[in-house]
């Protein structure tokens, strides 16, 4: 009887390890393109961040991030190139995140990002379905370009040339 229990326990452990490995691969290794969700923020949508005066800049880049997002952290080196490039072109850069501002500022600082504006964002209202999301917004608060997920180098170049 104890032998059967030991075998069943071993099988359950193996199944658990396979499921855990699949979850890790899905969340931290897979870099495929995110599916295009028709309910996600898209070009032409209004970027609803109440405290932002969009008219203050011709163009703004909004980094929609969240804590515990592996791809957000993995994208930090790109954001560290993007931020000074945007500033040199007089393009405002805003980090928008759900949750308390203090936590968001701590997360952004922990990534080493020189952000001047870190705002609280309601991702449901903004229709953000995945992070990271990078949006370019015009002086009327309208999204003119959007990229979702971890960006490969060709997409990073696309963002930089869109500034």
Q: In words, what does this structure look like?
A:
By secondary structure, the protein is an alpha/beta fold. It has 2 domains: 30 residues; 108 residues, Glutaredoxin. Helix content is 42%, strand content 17%. Strands 3-2-1-4-5 form a 5-stranded mixed sheet. Strand 4 and strand 5 form a beta hairpin. The longest helix is centred in the first third of the chain and has 28 residues. The chain is elongated and about 75 Å long.
> For this structure, what is the CATH class of the largest domain?
Alpha Beta
Radius of gyration: 20 Å
Query: Which oligomeric form is depicted?
Result: single chain
**Total number of helical segments?**
6
What is the percent of helical residues?
40-55%
| CATH H-level superfamily title of the largest domain | Glutaredoxin
What does the average pLDDT come to? 88
Range of strand content: 15-25%
Please provide the count of β strands.
Answer: 5
Give the low-pLDDT segments.
Answer: none
**What structural class should be given to the helix and strand makeup?**
alpha/beta
Domains (count): 2
CATH architecture of the largest domain: 3-Layer(aba) Sandwich
């Amino acid at each position: 009887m104890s032998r059967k229990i030991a075998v069943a326990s071993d099988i359950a452990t193996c199944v658990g390890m396979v499921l855990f490995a699949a979850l890790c691969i899905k969340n931290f290794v897979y870099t495929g393109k995110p599916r295009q969700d028709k309910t996600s923020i898209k070009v032409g949508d209004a970027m609803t961040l109440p405290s932002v005066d969009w008219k203050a800049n011709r163009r703004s880049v909004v980094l929609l991030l969240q804590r515990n997002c592996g791809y957000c952290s993995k994208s930090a080196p790109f954001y560290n190139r993007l931020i000074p490039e945007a500033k040199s072109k007089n393009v405002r850069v805003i980090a928008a995140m759900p949750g308390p501002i203090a936590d968001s500022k701590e997360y952004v600082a922990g990534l080493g990002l020189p952000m001047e504006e870190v705002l609280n964002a309601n991702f449901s209202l903004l229709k953000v379905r995945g992070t990271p999301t990078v949006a370019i917004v015009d002086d009327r608060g309208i999204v003119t370009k959007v990229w979702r997920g971890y960006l490969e180098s060709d997409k990073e170049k696309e963002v930089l040339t869109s500034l």
